[in-house]
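Morning!

As promised:
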Amino acid sequence: MIQLSEKNMEYTISKTSWCPGCGNFGIISAIKRALEEMGKKPHEILLIGGIGQAAKLPHYLTGNVLNGLHGRTLPNATGAKVANGELTVIVTTGDGDCYGEGGNHLIHAIRRNVDITCIVHNNQVYGLTRGQASPTSDWGFVTRVQPHGAIASRFNALALVLAMGGTFAGRSFSGDQEHLSRMIQEAVRHNGFSLLEVLQPCVSFNHINTFAWYRERVYDVNAEENYNPGNRAMAFEKALQWGDRIPIGLIYKEEKPSFEEQIPVLRRGSLVKQPALGKDVLRSLIEEFI
Amino acid sequence: MVDLNVKIGGAAGQGMQTIGSLLGKIFVRGGYHVFAIQDNMSRIRGGHNFIQLRIKKEPVMAMTGGVHFLVALDKETIEAHAGELMSTGLVIYDAEAIDFFSDKPNFLNVPLEKLAREKGGRQIYSNSVALGSILGLLEFGEEIMTRMIQQAFTRSKEVADANIRAARAGYEFARQNFAPRWSKRIKPEKDAHRMLLTGNDAICLGAVASGCKFMSAYPMSPSTAIITYLAGKNERIGIVTEQGEDEIAVINMALGASVAGVRSMVATSGGGFALMVETLSLLGVSEAPLVIVECQRPGPATGLPTRTEQADLHFVIHAGHGEFPRAVLAPGNAEQAFRATIKAFNLADRFQIPVFVLADQYLCESYFTCEPFNIDDIPFETSMLSNEELSKIKDYKRYLITEFGISPRAYPMQSKHLVVTDSHEHDESGHISEDAELRKLMVEKRLRKMDGILSQLSGPSLEDSGNASTVICGWGSTHGVIKEAVATLRAEGKDLSFMHFSELWPFPAAKTRETLQNINRLVVVENNATGQLARLVRQYTGRKEMEQVLKYTGRPFTLEELVDELRKVVPER
């Protein structure tokens, strides 16, 4: 059994079931650091996970938790945020959970632009089920289930955000705490749906895309003088880049009204705090059938 | 005795529902009772659809065969339904518009479109001309007709006035030209203050009365009218509605909203619910309350999308992997649908479970006349901790093991206490655990709630019992037609009573056994092919002897049809 800190006022990381050296450790530390630096209290946070190793993260960090089904976290997050807009809703999910099982929900979460943060731990492989290809596995990636190598082309979430009219696409690397924690803060602060993909090696089942493999390739786009994350065409070019050089950083950001801001009922405040409806309204509805 | 059937048929998109419900409201206001069914083909345009109203001085709750007024907005209506006309029955049609003419005296050629153009200014008012002509033949009174049209079109005086002019033109035309063809005049009485609404309308009112705040759905017949109604009134009623990308998203959004602390509901049909089943299981283990409205239609798979069947009873009772508590309510008419929805929210909230309102196309889309819902004492039951109660708790545990299985419920950010909700087996705090002993305790904790839920359910109702030794039994939407069939046969001297289940799960076995104790003959009537209620009764009461009347054509029972079937199985007194 996992024991949480007796004090709910601070963030602690409890014992995990991740393999030693797993890229997830870098992510959980960076989330903790980001939330602490932002001054968010654990009770103000709702961490939502589905199924997979990334999706277990909410159990290991102090906060409110909704651990649901494989792939279904984004609808859970949408409902929770609509019900209580004061919550900071953070989804921690993996490439299988979010891009595979939950692919349809991702498309529509981007379109809705609900103010939630979606941190996708992308290790390009299925870990919990022991090493099958994931939607982000590179072409030719050999596993016991794909003995001739993965055939389908790589799922490109950043390009999907841009194509679907999304408002925030970012990428970071779990081997760079400084960068990752900064990107998480950017993503949480963003008003709207923010997708932050985190490159994260799986030390047990992916011996190709290792820490060293990523480290050799990643570069911070925001360090480039001419890069403008407000330029969608420029961002699309970066989103398509993969291989010898892999861009990380704030790829795209746009200010648009969030889903919640466009729902008239929510302008009166959080649903959960709205008072019960008066009898007069119900009476008038009944009257309409007479 | 007034017992009139009006059938309005046409192609999809010709507005039969609008004119039918308005006509119904006029009769209801005039002191009559109306029951109406809708019969649609699964098409946007074309096809053949109709709405049929039965109008009676006394309460009416089933459809009879035989048509007194057939309004044919297309030719197909005549081809399909002229054979249903009573000997005195009349057809109202526009020969020019539908390219059909008959010189039979009971075919009344009313220039609907021409009068609509002349008096209303636009052809679309031809339905109002037709409405006016029926009322004109009955001499039901122009005053009440005018008033009700005004009420129906409050948004635009211009549209209201055009419809009124068109209806009056139809009224006068029919009266002047065809009055002798119809002998029976019906006068409105003193204004009656009753509702005319569908089962779906009643479910919506139940949700509003319950304080539902979030409702999601994916469009699917015959449930779509629920989100349509709630979305249309969202600002007035404070409910956020969202159309999900699929039913999986729909139920997961509603679960998210529920965990975050608001009363939530989804509405779908069998196929949509099939997609929701994994999340039903999540509701079970995470103990998140949710109301699921399942409006049945005939399957398997796409089946008959716009028609009716009671074939998902076992599906909703058994759906979901793993063992967890739930409740299934199956209201029999609009009033019951309103009450059942309120009860569903309370059971869900109190026991932290999924609760089904199991309806079907026949209930959802039929119109019922009833007294205005009494809203003085709407119960509100919840297991959600108040802020004050929560502040007294030192170490909050979402899944605290308790005597009756109900754990203290709080929502994220209600206080500094953390609320952990989990799909895995978990410890009391909500975190993943694979401990064998804890697993056993948690399974037992959840299942213990079944006793509490069962104690809240009424058993089958037994009406007109007297000392009858034969019972005609049904569940859900067949309530009205069985009740009226039993009354008809009793009037003939048959020795019968009527038994109805509107709350089916957890199955009220003890109460059912008790009710059936002195019953020699049990006849179970269902709108399905395998007798799903009959199987439950057999399984939970041990009673094997029963007869069954089953209909699975995708159409509801008519009164005569059921009476005939029952005559075959019920002996003389």
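Chain B touches chain A through 70 residues (CB under 8 Å).

Hope this helps with the figure draft.
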